[in-house]
Amino acid sequence: MLDKFKDECGVMAVHNHREASTMAYLGLHQLQHRGQESAGVVSSNGERLYMHKAMGQVADIFTEDVLSKLPGNLAIGHTRYSTAGDSAVLNAQPIMVDCNKGMIAIAHNGNLVNANEIRSRLEGQGSIFQTTSDTEVIVHLIAQSKEHTLPEAVCDALRRIEGAFSLVMMTRDRVFAIRDPRGFRPLSMGRIPNGGPSGDTVVFASETCAFDLIGAVYERDVKPGEMVVVGPEGTFSRFFAAEMKQSACIFEHVYFSRPDSVVFGRPVQTSREAMGRQLAKESPVEADLVVPVPDSGVAAALGYSSESLLPFRFGLIRNHYIGRTFIEPEQRVRDFGVKLKLNPIRSLLVGKRVILVDDSIVRGTTSRKIVRMVRDAGAKEVHVRISCPPTISPCYYGVDTPSKGQLIASNKSIEEIRDYIGSDSLAYLSLEGLRVACAEGEKTTYCTSCYTGVYPTEFIPLDQIQPMAVKKP
Amino acid sequence: MLDKFKDECGVMAVHNHREASTMAYLGLHQLQHRGQESAGVVSSNGERLYMHKAMGQVADIFTEDVLSKLPGNLAIGHTRYSTAGDSAVLNAQPIMVDCNKGMIAIAHNGNLVNANEIRSRLEGQGSIFQTTSDTEVIVHLIAQSKEHTLPEAVCDALRRIEGAFSLVMMTRDRVFAIRDPRGFRPLSMGRIPNGGPSGDTVVFASETCAFDLIGAVYERDVKPGEMVVVGPEGTFSRFFAAEMKQSACIFEHVYFSRPDSVVFGRPVQTSREAMGRQLAKESPVEADLVVPVPDSGVAAALGYSSESLLPFRFGLIRNHYIGRTFIEPEQRVRDFGVKLKLNPIRSLLVGKRVILVDDSIVRGTTSRKIVRMVRDAGAKEVHVRISCPPTISPCYYGVDTPSKGQLIASNKSIEEIRDYIGSDSLAYLSLEGLRVACAEGEKTTYCTSCYTGVYPTEFIPLDQIQPMAVKKP
Amino acid sequence: MLDKFKDECGVMAVHNHREASTMAYLGLHQLQHRGQESAGVVSSNGERLYMHKAMGQVADIFTEDVLSKLPGNLAIGHTRYSTAGDSAVLNAQPIMVDCNKGMIAIAHNGNLVNANEIRSRLEGQGSIFQTTSDTEVIVHLIAQSKEHTLPEAVCDALRRIEGAFSLVMMTRDRVFAIRDPRGFRPLSMGRIPNGGPSGDTVVFASETCAFDLIGAVYERDVKPGEMVVVGPEGTFSRFFAAEMKQSACIFEHVYFSRPDSVVFGRPVQTSREAMGRQLAKESPVEADLVVPVPDSGVAAALGYSSESLLPFRFGLIRNHYIGRTFIEPEQRVRDFGVKLKLNPIRSLLVGKRVILVDDSIVRGTTSRKIVRMVRDAGAKEVHVRISCPPTISPCYYGVDTPSKGQLIASNKSIEEIRDYIGSDSLAYLSLEGLRVACAEGEKTTYCTSCYTGVYPTEFIPLDQIQPMAVKKP
Amino acid sequence: MLDKFKDECGVMAVHNHREASTMAYLGLHQLQHRGQESAGVVSSNGERLYMHKAMGQVADIFTEDVLSKLPGNLAIGHTRYSTAGDSAVLNAQPIMVDCNKGMIAIAHNGNLVNANEIRSRLEGQGSIFQTTSDTEVIVHLIAQSKEHTLPEAVCDALRRIEGAFSLVMMTRDRVFAIRDPRGFRPLSMGRIPNGGPSGDTVVFASETCAFDLIGAVYERDVKPGEMVVVGPEGTFSRFFAAEMKQSACIFEHVYFSRPDSVVFGRPVQTSREAMGRQLAKESPVEADLVVPVPDSGVAAALGYSSESLLPFRFGLIRNHYIGRTFIEPEQRVRDFGVKLKLNPIRSLLVGKRVILVDDSIVRGTTSRKIVRMVRDAGAKEVHVRISCPPTISPCYYGVDTPSKGQLIASNKSIEEIRDYIGSDSLAYLSLEGLRVACAEGEKTTYCTSCYTGVYPTEFIPLDQIQPMAVKKP
């Protein structure tokens, strides 16, 4: 998929490291594929919290000057794809507040399904909201909890929210890592042996690729329904909710996570190759070349190639020098947006029957342009293979899928989609094939609601939280 | 006074103008002497509120692009001197929140004396705070009020807070302007006849100089204890508190307000000249020249000159091209910081007996450097005359005076101060003289606590609101 | 005069100081009234030259980081008002070149009258030009000189150019300061006793106000036709041209120089006050107040007041917070541009007969707006007094006067101008009065060509150097 | 190769297009792999030239505002890797000058070997140089030519320079494209049918990938020794030098050019795959996986895989979110710099015998870190295969190779290099194998001096042009 999904995030936490904010920043650098338009870090020196968050890429936001103003041995960080407009900076994370439990900072990956409901209730009781983020709801619940210790209050709050939440939280002397009972989003724990002033550094990150850069060793995942607290008295874990069937987001394996990460206990690269192999078994086609849509289609294309024994080739080259806004000539160039990012290698494609492997088709418009680009480069046939089932339903757990009306597979048959994108054939991976490729089984069960429309939570929001100002008193 | 006081602010509000945010921005431009390090505007198009706030000067923050994203016929704005560090952006105003009364934006000039007390109580009840600003307290009180209409809820909240507050507030369709019952800070109301789509534009500003640039006509001051609401149903006024003796901040006349403003019903320039005249009567001295410390000592020096019949001359030239951070050579230049801003005209000063007129002496260090600069330029005698009484006590009503320990007049006799700053003589205006110069009387009574240590509010905070993170749970 | 003249510059040079580039930068800071839109510094560590120049204000351009990359004990600097468009950065100074005389950097205040002629000849011989600045011509002449030593080559070049030039120049180990034989523009020499590693620091600056900030003592002016060279062998001086009658720019006293500078051996403040006094003698009028147009009319207004015994008052307040581009509302505010910068004090002006003192009237449009502003504020009469004669002719020596067609005094009688600007009376200072005020005599004779149309150089350019690309081969 | 070579450039020219500067900018966007630290465009509207150049990435430099100030139907552009320090902006291209041939702008890819010699002679004759770029030499020679027409003068100049030069040049109404007689660097010509106001748009670019984005069709290469001129009278071509044996830079196929470009008439991707295949034939090894060092080793690795029938896998993931300066923790992370860019996929590598394919080894330090990274990820064996011969000699024709002392292959045997980088085996492609892979033959002969130390030009510079200021007069 050439375009980014918009609402994902990456979180990071560091306990007991002399350069905690630098470690958090380096971790965020590795997590930018999950959201690269705003980033923030909150650190603590044991006395107070320090925050910096801004729009932009991680490496631009965190200069040496900025990091020097984020002192202390504890830090949490967040990176996200920000929606446009005035709410962008407002909604950047972490959120830092003062309340009767002291200073708290929190960063959230996921989406709550009952945030509107709770927010309405809290507003009715006189609470004020300064963002449109569902994360603010969590902080209110913690502050209002009647429990006497912070860990108890947090658990109390967590029991009131439903949906997807992989959270990192920080007080002046403790780091918390929390995963919702269904375990929608990944959250891993790592360790830098003797990394800090008082022994091992403990770190948490959305994906294990964040550990590699900072020299941390993966230890285990935070478990569904678990809260891990690292503080002066050491590390302790407790489960705030009864065990439920896991609903790990299968789309992390299909698209979101980096191939060098291990999520839900399984290397992403392994899943993707298996998807490609399975796809080749399910939907073979006579052809000359297997060509990925870079970068997201590469691993599945390699799997398809090794199963089909058809040669894998980079027939489309990706240009990584893309600025934020790009000026298009008034005298229109056809498919300009796609051409900015991709260019075909004619010498490879000309006269060939090409199997084009991509991870998803969302609206279909980009796929249509890519197929046209490959044909224009001289390909004789273009066969599109997608490494997951048709996306028919929106996600309510943290992926910014368009509404049903915009999802092409929700409105057209596969043959109609093929006709729209202009390929000679089109096939999707079966749901069963995808499950197998991701090794569903005892260890992990997946949420596949975007492919089935069947949602694991009882409650599904009719609408997302309304923009702040639309509501009228 | 060469250095800026730090905690003052300017506020602005606009109702019924097609370019409300531009009008607010222009008003803020005129109010920058009250705080020039951050600024913000919130606008409303009747449906929702739009916000932009940032660090920096008004003209740099509000580009055409930014203003185009602040649509609608209503706007409020705020400019302030921001304290350094991470809290700076956090505490920028206006504050915009969502609550059971709908969307509210608020901007505040002044300081509450019971904010800590209320905040502790609110936190105890489970409220969360995202800034260290006392203004956030007001919003919580409004949200938690049991009153059923917003105006009632606002009045309810206002009755719970004590101290100095000139507020502008906005909902999606109404603008509020409010002044505390003692009327510490100024707040004026103006009108652009037929300025907007539905008749007259109504504007509010901290000082009347903001009206001149946007073509508004001064109408009246918002009265102490009054709340003026301008909305779809027209303009109405109500008093939320019983009448009290006014405590208008006399320092607005001495230093803060622009000389082209009319505050508390009296032209500032008139007061300042009268101070200078009175000072000449009280503390004459044989000399050749009256020289102001620019820019704040100019008007009083003119008054002193006209009363004493001694010639007024600009013996010190002010350099207005000062960037935020200025690089000092390692090989130190004596009194470098003052020299960056001021330069003496030797030809005027050499061999002369000079009366140097300034508005205040705070710590005494800057005065000492200026006296030395004038002597080094050849002056035979330097007589310092200050257009107000010795500043002996901190202000709790919105002026960031240093603590008693740092106020030279709180710790030294006038003769000791004279000795410290190195002048041949030193005299301050008497408190009675200052009252007369500012026309205290039936119309206006002043707060002079910084000169007397006698405070008009029952309650004086032992400390300001603690920095967010110092508190430990 | 409220608007800036555009083509002036300030130059600065430093020899033998451990922080030479910082000293140059501080000097430029003081010279920004001569041009504040671009600035540059070249330094030398004895081995090579280092350059930094950019658009913007001095304090923004020279950060600590930038200064750290300008090492060495020698430096020259330049600040200027840059013309708009693509040529701006191209034409920023100093110019640094490599040639058969080694590395040379040069910075120029003034304007050559035979630059076009020389440039055409040089181009004919195969020279290339990379700027549109006349300064580049000088460098070519130095490089092409057949003289064997650099000082000889420089003198050779200087004898070929005509017009106004106050130059500072630098090689890797020498600083040069040069003034044209007629001495149009000022250039002063100062000294910081034992300021550098090898004894005294020698500095040169367009105005003496630059010396005050860096602790340098004014020593003497560079003389017309003199070249002062400071290098390893000490300081030496030579005259490159026969003595001529001096043509010091009288407009430096009227407007350009800072009042705290001594130019052409005379304190600017003294001249300006004398202009005001003389003006009061020549053109008295019955009135209540003398009000300056700030800041440039202040000194003359003080002189007028002291001669006429009419009270001086600041009836117009200047707003110094002006950003580069200011957004004007679409719904036009009358005289918006002037209102941004000036605001009247109504309480002072209402009902009064006001004498408004300014230094010049160029096009008349701004004066017209200011007169209207003073009347709108309630003045009963407005009498305009200008502290120099009518400006009727353009300057070819470094002041960017508009062409005759745009100079109101070149096209209208005084009565017509009075009618245009809407004042009750209008008077200019006489040329003779101006000469007296500036103490013309044995010591100094002035160029007054902008008031007379009589030019001291034989040659007057028919047009300025053409923009680079208009010429067609 | 993970690190960038530093001195390459990309050039672009556009004739007859309504948005010529936008087309140039889009072309430069595609050429940024040849140098991404500064960029410039000069346009012409037939009357004059307009220039903008700056440090930074193409998409950041050319905003809509900037492009609107580059009007006209002609444009040339340049993008380059800038060397650090003060010379960076100075040396940015295009260079624009005014001379007796009119306005000329020029952009250069390559390096002259006799620039120092010519520059010394020109300086001796009185020429001045404002950059340290050898390109400025060319402009001087054109200006000084006695020929009467510009095309003749250009040919005259070109006959005096030796080395590598692919040039685009522009006057107010003509575009020139020129290639040195040995044809070191590529330069292609394309066409947008009916793209401009007067028929076809003609474009030139360093690589054909620039044509694809703007909808231009590749027509032919500019030939070695050819000058193509496109002007009002149409397109004409002439050869300014006698035919010589071509010395096309073979490193363009090995590393520089994009795989989707056709250079020297041959698709780059085809060459690279052939290199990989040939390498597999020459240096097979028993192993489990072929893994490229991304991105530059990918095509050769695919070739190696398809020849060896060993599976190709992305065992190293490249992080493309790299900011300009990256903050390293003080508590050092081993091989931090490489880890920022690359991360291994452990699940793929663990227990495997890995063939690591890269395009070059320069200093050896990066290769050493990558080998270590692959071993740390669990690989059992690491066999390094390089798709060209050992780099033993610096390039004088436009590639910024380090000096012999820094080239590991110039100082160590292959076995010593293997030992240094820590691999189990190491093999380079043979020179003969490389020639075959690049299809050397009648059509193209290559310069291979970096692998042989045998240079095609008679003259080799003993040193590059000296930094401007080292020279002492």
Describe the protein in words:
- Four copies of one chain form a homotetramer.
- Chain A is α+β, with helices and mostly antiparallel strands and 473 residues long.
- Chain A has two domains: 9-247, Aminohydrolase, N-terminal nucleophile (Ntn) domain (Glutamine Phosphoribosylpyrophosphate, subunit 1, domain 1, 4-Layer Sandwich), CATH 3.60.20; 252-320 and 334-452, Rossmann fold.
- Chain A contains 18 helices and 23 strands.
- In chain A, the strands form six sheets. In chain A, strands 3-2-4-1-10-9-11 form a seven-stranded antiparallel sheet. A six-stranded antiparallel sheet of chain A has the order 5-6-7-8-12-13, covered by helices on one side.
- The model of chain A is unreliable at 83-87 and 464-473 (pLDDT under 50).
- Chains A and D meet through α1, α2, α8, α11 and α12 of A and α1, α2, α8, α11 and α12 of D.
- Going by helix content, strand content and strand pairing, the class of chain A is alpha+beta
Strand content of chain A: 25-35%
* Unreliable segments of 5+ consecutive residues of chain A: 83-87, 464-473
Instruction: Give me the side-by-side strand order of the main sheet of chain A.
Output: 3-2-4-1-10-9-11
